[in-house]
Amino acid sequence: xxxxxxxxxxxxxxxxxxxxxxxxxxxxxxxxxxxxxxxxxxxxxxxxxxxxxxxxxxxxxxxxxxxxxxxxxxxxxxxxxxxxxxxxxxxxxxxxxxxxxxxxxxxxxxxxxxxxxxxxxxxxxxxxxx
Length: 130
Known about the structure:
The chain is mainly β. The chain has one helix at 86-89; strands spanning 8-13, 17-19, 23-32, 38-47, 52-58, 63-67, 70-76, 90-98, 104-106, 109-118.
């Protein structure tokens, strides 16, 4: 089975530092390489619930669901455009708030369980960790 995940690029644009009580936007993008066979992708974005409170999302495309510490994305029809074409590649803009008592530190968001699919029935890759 071909590993289609190599044909998908997932990008997370966020701050890497935090301050108590501050709200931050995290923008998630995905695209596929030119001449790629990939038609869709699903993955999880994990965040530290001891540091962040999930506030909400906007501009989402595809299916985006949130459960404690994990935001799951599913998107079909990936663009070949570069990430600077926000309209074509943005999956969602998420908002998080730093919890009280967290005065400083490093913010991290982790992409896991990436699965890419093409238009061939029952063909997908095994989930990987990025």
